[in-house]
């Protein structure tokens, strides 16, 4: 089993050794998943957030300056219909952390499940919630939940998010206990972060027993305290993707859009480093421009781009890996 020291060494590789690392990661991916990439359809449901993350333009301090939006249940069902029409069976709702999303999403889920004849994965990324809210969403039919800790370093986490890492971990444990397929992830390039800290993030996620894990390069966004901080290192991010694949071969690991924002070929290289998920954006255009996760100039993944990307890497698109699998018991992977 790879430990923090092993992972730190993998993260430092460059040149031919880095290529070898990517090849090992691709091989592991093929062993577990075949030559396939999971395709998700995402819609962003609100740009309002009660948290004040240093790196995010949707942070609480910017609420007044941003034009707020919040989709309703009918909107979510409409977007899900568009996702279904594209042949995608992973419907992904993400948004800022506000309590109102529980009801809006909870009301939409059964209607979406019915539309799909129950053959759909409902994936959520709506931040910290109370356990009874997670329970309600699960009962309504949610399958999976992404809750990134961003960094597993408790001090840095508190500096960046103004919340405790502990509160995030409690939510992650609640999600696992309730039978969600759970994703987490980290940002690469936060102030004061070093190689060992990135390695610890990956090993930490394995020890949590999650089913999906992402790494994304930090993207400096305007109107945030970190606007002047340099962007995350793409090579290090790619190595972290490959190392994650070796640490836990059956993880779903996305090639995130922030990779393409930082470097033109970033997502292609993410897939070549062992990632196996691409997310296509279905947010209605008017709202998409207001969802400022990386500022106004973010990179939006559309259907054609994703298809081209997957074909170029010699992989084929596929649907949810969780459908038809037995619901995990609490702690079955820890
Ligand atoms: S990163 Fe998420 S939790 Fe933090 S301010 Fe942005 S939307 Fe809110």
Automatic annotation (TrEMBL):
Keywords: Iron, Iron-sulfur, Metal-binding, S-adenosyl-L-methionine
CDD domains from the UniProt entry: Radical_SAM
SUPFAM superfamilies: Radical SAM enzymes
Pfam families the UniProt entry points to: Radical_SAM
Domain Radical SAM core: 35-257
Keyword Transcription regulation part of the UniProt annotation: no
InterPro entries with a match to the protein in the record: Aldolase_TIM (IPR013785), Elp3/MiaA/NifB-like_rSAM (IPR006638), HydE/PylB-like (IPR034422), rSAM (IPR007197), rSAM_sf (IPR058240)
Tree of life domain: Bacteria
Name listed for the protein in its UniProt record: [FeFe] hydrogenase H-cluster radical SAM maturase HydE
Species assigned in the record: Amycolatopsis bullii
């Amino acid at each position: 089993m790879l430990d923090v020291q092993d992972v730190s060494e993998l993260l430092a590789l460059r040149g031919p050794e880095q290529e070898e690392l990517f090849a090992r990661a691709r091989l592991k991916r093929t062993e577990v998943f075949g030559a396939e990439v999971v395709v998700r359809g995402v819609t962003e449901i609100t740009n309002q957030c009660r948290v004040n993350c240093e790196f995010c333009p949707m942070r609480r301090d910017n609420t007044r300056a941003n034009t707020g939006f919040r989709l309703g249940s009918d909107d979510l069902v409409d977007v899900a219909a568009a996702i279904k029409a594209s042949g995608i069976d992973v419907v992904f709702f993400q948004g800022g952390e506000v309590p109102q999303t529980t009801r809006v999403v909870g009301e939409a889920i059964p209607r979406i499940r019915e539309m799909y004849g129950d053959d759909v994965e409902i994936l959520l990324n709506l931040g910290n919630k109370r356990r009874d809210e997670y329970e309600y969403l699960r009962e309504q039919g949610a399958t999976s939940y992404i809750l990134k800790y961003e960094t597993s370093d408790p001090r840095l986490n508190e500096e960046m998010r103004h919340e405790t890492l502990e509160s995030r971990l409690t939510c992650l444990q609640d999600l696992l206990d309730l039978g969600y397929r759970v994703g987490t992830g980290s940002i690469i390039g936060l102030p004061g972060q070093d190689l060992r800290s990135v390695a610890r993030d990956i090993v930490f996620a394995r020890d949590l027993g999650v089913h999906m894990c992402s790494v994304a390069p930090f993207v400096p966004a305007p109107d945030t305290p970190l606007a002047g901080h340099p962007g995350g290192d793409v090579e290090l991010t790619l190595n972290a993707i490959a190392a994650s694949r070796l640490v836990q071969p059956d993880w779903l690991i996305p090639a995130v859009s922030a990779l393409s924002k930082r470097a033109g070929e970033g997502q292609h290289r993410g897939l070549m480093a062992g990632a196996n998920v691409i997310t296509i954006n279905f947010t209605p255009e008017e709202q998409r421009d207001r969802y400022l996760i990386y500022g106004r100039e973010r990179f939006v993944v559309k259907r054609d781009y994703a298809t081209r990307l997957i074909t170029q890497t010699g992989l084929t698109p596929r649907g949810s890996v969780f459908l038809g699998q037995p619901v995990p018991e609490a702690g079955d992977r820890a």
